[in-house]
Structures are given as C-alpha cells and as structure tokens.
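Example record

The entry below shows one chain as it appears in the dataset: sequence first, then structure tokens.
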Amino acid sequence: MTAKILHLKNRGVIRVAGTEAVGFLQGLVTNDVAKVTAENALYAAMLTPQGKFMYDMIISANKDSLLLDVEADRKADLYRRLMMYKLRADVTLTDEPLKVWALIDGNPEQGVCYNDPRHKSLHKRVIAAENPAPGAAPLQYDAYEERRIRNGVPDGSRDMAVEKYFWLETNAEKLNGVSFTKGCYVGQELTARMKHRTTLKKLIVPVKFDGVAPKTGTVIKTDTEKTVGEVHSSTGPYALAYMRLEYKDMILRADNQALSLI
C-alpha cells in the first residue's frame, strides 16, 4: 500500500510537562491518563460539571511530557482554562508551534507518532514541525473526511455543540473516549449516570444522502415533518448527524433529500 499523508490544519498542540502532569490532567479529562505511554495514545474530553462537551483531545506521550492534539481555533481558550486549573501544581503548559498530520499506510521518519485511538480506519497521527513522511503521497482532505465521517468520528466543535451535547451522545464510548473505572473528573457523575441508569436518546451517527449532503445545520425531519436532528460535517453524500434515535428507522429527509443511517 502506498503511504499517504495530510497536514490537519485545524489541529494544534499543547504540551503539558512537570512531575504532576498526569495527575493534573487525570482530574480534568474523561479518560485514564495513567494509561498513556509511548505506544498508546488516548482520546479524551473536558466536560462541564453537567457532563456536556467542552473540548476534546488526543493525548500522547513525548519523553517526560504529554502532548495534547487539540482544535487549533480553540487552542487558546483551552490553554487559558488549563492555566486556571493549574494553581500550584508542578505543571508547565506550553503552546507548541507543532503540526498534526494524518498518516495512512506508512511510518514517519520523525516526530511523535501514535495510532489514532478513536478508530483503526484513521491509522496514524504524527506531531511534527514539518512533513514527517516526505516520501508519502499527499492524502486528499475529502478522502480523509470520508474515512472519518463514515466511521462516526466527530471533529471537535464542528460536530459537537459546545456545552450542549452530553459526552456519551457524541459516540465517545465507542470511540474509546471515556473510562468508567478511573477516579473523578469534572462531569464524571452525570456521565456515569447516563451510562448505568439511562438509555441514550440522542447520538451523533454517520448517514448517507441520495445526493450531496446538505450544509451543516440543515434540519432532519420525518415524512410527517417531525424535527429529529440536524446535519453536521459532510463530504460528498456522507455526513454526521445529531439525532433522536427513536426515529432512526423512519423515513428521514433533510433539505428535501432522503438519508439513511450507515
């Protein structure tokens, strides 16, 4: 297979260093940071106290520090929030001028490389200042987006409404983005309650349209005009949709186009 690489321009990097780096993040994010190793990255999120999405990230190890692969446009906001929580902990936060790359069917020559923990079809990600696999062919953005969307992987706040969607409604459990055995973190109580006491009523799901998917925010309705959800990021006929699961087997349309769950 020919290796292919794509610079993910919508991602940025924050470094968390210091003797208390793991413990600092452990009390803030949804996954077990103690399990991060040079070979094992983790998908996680920071939530509101009510268990709703605020920021997601992929956490990887780099020598004696942790690297947070985060949304570039919201990196400054996340950095400020982390600084608020830092207080007197032995933690150093650095806004890193590094790039995030998606690498399919190949190995990098440099950088911090890890398997994308959300879904095996997304292969590897690399954090490096420059192209870490210069011999790889360019990976087209739409081809990567199709992989991501068809496998139900949301892309930060493009697909997850900030402070509105519960973390488990974002497909987080299936995408290895939550631990139900670690200690407490912000939003843990509501997340655990949803897991053990309720059935999810809404979820981000991959869908396919008869034609090109409509724009983000387009309302999804039943044939009786009942609003059941909305469209999020898309490429070609594929899109992610946030919708009420009770209607998933009904005839659904958005912008006069029929759609079906993948």
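Notes for this example: DSSP finds four helices and 16 strands in the chain. The helical segments are 21-26, 75-86, 141-150, 188-197.
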